[in-house]
Amino acid sequence: MPKAKKDFREKKKEEIIKVACKLFAEKGYYNTTIPDIADAMKMSVGNLYNYFKSKEELAKYIMQYSSRLLGEEIRKINEEPISTKEKIYKIVRKFFEISSEKPELIEYFLRVFLSNREVFHEGCEGFLCVSEVVTELTLFLEEGAMKGDLRQQDFFPAFVTLMGPLGGMVFLKGEGVLPKAPIDYSDELAENIWRALKAD
């Protein structure tokens, strides 16, 4: 496929993702149809099916797309010659930057992915849909522990300690109860995460 055509296709996919995320979050996964998404996109249903063969395929693709996006940013931070503590600060800030630039992706994760797990099967079970993020965070935690900066501990408590507060802040923002933008809390939150994970 020529590069120009491929770039156009990827851009159109991103537009579909943005609209689909919004509709899924607002109306619910089961109450949103492919014709609803096509109508909001001002494109024909047939044309939309050229990009995604089914609503389920689109739902999975959104999670995989989100994981690639965040995973790539964490990979860049992992490769920087900075301290483990500085990496935590950067990961927190980057997560909030993405949640500000693409709020529909985080809303989708919180309101669709976590609430409709039965939809995400056949290659999307558990962490499979977000494997890029999990891989990069695993590398970050293992490297931090090897350096003696982070406590040796089971992956899951460490993962939740790092990512749980980030999702929580974005959720509070979405509920309209957070007085400031999540990024305004990033340094304080990063410090809390660092203190919770660091070696004694």
Descriptive notes:
With 200 residues, the protein is an all-alpha fold. It contains nine helices and no strands. It has one domain: Tetracycline Repressor, domain 2 (Orthogonal Bundle). α4 packs parallel to α7. The longest helix is centred in the N-terminal third of the chain and has 25 residues. The termini are far apart. The model has no long low-confidence stretch (mean pLDDT 90).
Task: Give the structure's gist in a few sentences.
This protein has 200 residues and is mainly α.
Tell me what portion of residues adopts beta-strand conformation.
Answer: under 5%
Number of domains: 1
Q: What is the CATH class?
A: Mainly Alpha
Computed Rg: 18 Å
Largest sheet: none
Mean pLDDT: 90
How far do the termini sit from each other?
54 Å
> What count of helical segments does DSSP give?
9
Q: Helix and strand string, N-terminal first?
A: HHHHHHHHH
What descriptive keywords fit this protein?
200 residues; mainly alpha; Tetracycline Repressor, domain 2; 0% strand
Give the arrangement of secondary structure elements:
Blueprint: H1 3-27, H2 34-41, H3 45-51, H4 55-79, H5 84-101, H6 103-113, H7 131-146, H8 155-174, H9 186-197
